[in-house]
Every structure is written in structure tokens, then in C-alpha cells.
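Chapter review: from sequence to fold.
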Amino acid sequence: MKKSYLIVCLLFVLQAAAFANGSIPMPAPEKSSGKLLADWIALHLKLVRNTKGLSQGALNRHFVYSSVAFYQAVSPGDSRCVSLENQLQDLANLPTAPAEKDACWAAGGNASIAAMLRIFYSGNPANISRIDSLENYYREVFGKSGFTKEQIKTGSDFGASVAAAIQEWAKNDGASKTHPAYEIPKGEGLWEPTPPGFSAPAAPYASKNRTCVKNSGSNTLPVAPASFASDPTSGFYKMVKEVYDASGNLTEDQKSMALFWDDFPDGRYYGAAGHWASIFRQVVDSEKLSLTKAAEAYALMHICLMDAFNGCWKAKYTYNLLRPVTYIHKYMNHPEWQPLIITPAHPEYPAAHASVSMAAAMALTYALGNNIKFTDHSYDDLGFKPRSFANFEEAGKEAGLSRLYGGIHYRPSIEAGYVLGKKTAANVKNQIHFQ
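The C-alpha cell string follows.
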């Protein structure tokens, strides 16, 4: 008996290890459980790490379109849910849900998100294999849960048709449009390429892309930043000096915070959208969210994040403010100074991570409440200690503040980002509904 028990334990450990390596999932949840979505998010994050050359903007698109497709595919299984068709900009002519009330709607979500990820991550054969494996695994799960082959096929076919429609919708968002070469504005106090790469400005036309919700950014443009000045007695100089002084006196926690929220999609980090997807996956598990509740919150979060990104980029290229590293080198006479994390290749104001993180945080607050405590284990495998938060907004604020300690943003830029993110999320909440 003891030997049999040890064998069973060993098999469980091996299965858990296989799941951690991305080959097979852990035992299945109940058929109405949000764990289906949580497992797909976990796989999506692995695909992000396996794909080279991803930008923050591309990741935003991948996550938002996948989340909308998943919601649309599972929502017919809950009579309280309503479609996002004609609520999101240009989203029309979506497939009609099958009349069969006992169709396997979870199979619809399974098929829809698998189809979306195949489109976005098709460049790596290993990615396709992982997607196929997880989709097929859950088809078997649904069968073992009591669904017939016909019910699973009905749901899966519907999910695939939803994904095809969402893919067509995504094609017309403006992201693939060709724009004229961007001319960097010249002048004192304006943004210029930053070390170490001195790269061209990233996505200068991103704000021209379609937002998910019409007019979600109509009132989000922040007031103009402080007027540029190089005088050491000026407010602008003092604003930059806060960044410089902080960089030389970082506590271990401040340094850890800056590195934890770096989120540059370089094969290690998940990007900002991916980091918030990772946070959400952990909350799905800890709060044991239902399938439709998880789908609703996930879609709302990425819609808000996507539209906040759009509004933030509009502001960045409206004001074209220079970065701390440029000012510190040129006007504070410290050419040797470098920030803790690499300065992204786009203008300073407002802070992007503050904008999109606060939008995501407020979306989750609207969907799940403001008293969910959680510990973020997103980067345990990178050696970072997990960070704990009393609620989503606290995490959003820390994400923004981390950019000050990272040496890449001024405090007013971070605070402007918070406001932009909150306004965007409020605009979205006031214009669309899921029930």
C-alpha cells in the first residue's frame, strides 16, 4: 500500500512539472470554472516569451482581441450576458449563437481563443503544437464532463466562427496602415532618441488606430506638462532632480519594484498587457471565478488597457517631452548617468505604464470589487520576490511609481498617467455593458 501511494504521488509531481513546462495542463476544472481561461492565459504568456520582436502595441492587440473572442464565444451559455456586438466600434455581423441550449459553450471559448492565438503566434511551430495540445486536451475534458460529441462540436464550431469574425474586425483597426515617415520635432525640451540604442520613436501613429470603444479617450488628454527650463532654480529642473537623486539612493525594495514592473517584452517579461493578464490569471484561481465572470472581467480589462494605450500615445506625441536621461546628460552635466531600466523609445509625458496599469486596475475593480487582496507571482521564475497588494488600484499605482525608481519618468508624468487610465476606464464602463 505504501509503495502504491508513493507511485501515485510521484505521478502527480511529474504531471505538475509537465504543466509548468507548458506540455500538459493540470487536472481539469468543473465545466463552468474560469480555470479554462486561466490555463489559456498561462499558455498565452508562454507564447509571448517564445516570440521575438513583439512590441507593447502588438501585445495589446493580441490580448484584447483574444479576450473579446473568448467572451463572445462563452457568453451564450449565461442568459444574463449580452453580446459586445454594436457596443465596440465597428463590431458587427457576428455569428448568431446556435439555438441548442445544451451546447458546450466552454468548448466555444476553447476553440475561439485557440484560433486567435494560432493567428498571432503562427511563426513558431512549437507554439502551434502547444495551442493544439491544450485545445485537444480540453475537448477530452468536456467529453469526460458529460457533454456529447455533438454538443462539443456545436460549441467548438461556434467558437471558431466567432474567432474568424473577430480576426476580420481586428484587420481594420488601423494597426497595419502605412503612414509617412515620422519627422521628430526639434526644439529645446523636446524628445530626442535616448541611449543606449538611440532608436527611432516607437509607434508615433498609434493613436490613429481605432479604439475599442468610441470616444473612450475624448476627455483623457492631460494638461500640458511643466514648461521646459534648464535653470537649477526652476520647477522643471527640480522635477528632474528628483529622478536623479532617487536613482542614487534606491532602497532594495524600490530597486526590486522597478525591475519587477519593467515589463519590456524581451523574452523574459510579458509586456504590460501580459503582466496584467498574469495577475488576472492568479485572481481567477484564488477567487475561483466562474467561466462567464472570468470572461467578462478579462475582456473589460483588456478593452480598457487597449484604449488607455491609445490615449496615452496621443498625449505623448502631442507634447513630445524629453526624457530624464536626456535632461540629466545635457542640462545637469552628468553624461555618465544611466537609468536602472532602459528608457523606451517614445516621448516622456504621460507615463505609459501608469496609464495602462491604472486602466486595467480600474477595470478589474469595476468587475470584481475593490477589496480583493492578491500576491503577484508573475515573475517568480525570474528570481523576483512576489509582491502583495490590498487591491487592484494599489498595484496600478505601484506600476506607475516604479518608473520613477527605474529612472525613466518624472513624477508628474506618472500622476498624469493615473488620471488618464482612470478616465479611460470610466468612459468604457459608462458606454458598454456585459449583462
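Two observations follow directly from the output. The CA atoms of residues 72 and 83 lie 6 Å apart. Confidence is low (pLDDT under 50) at residues 1-30.
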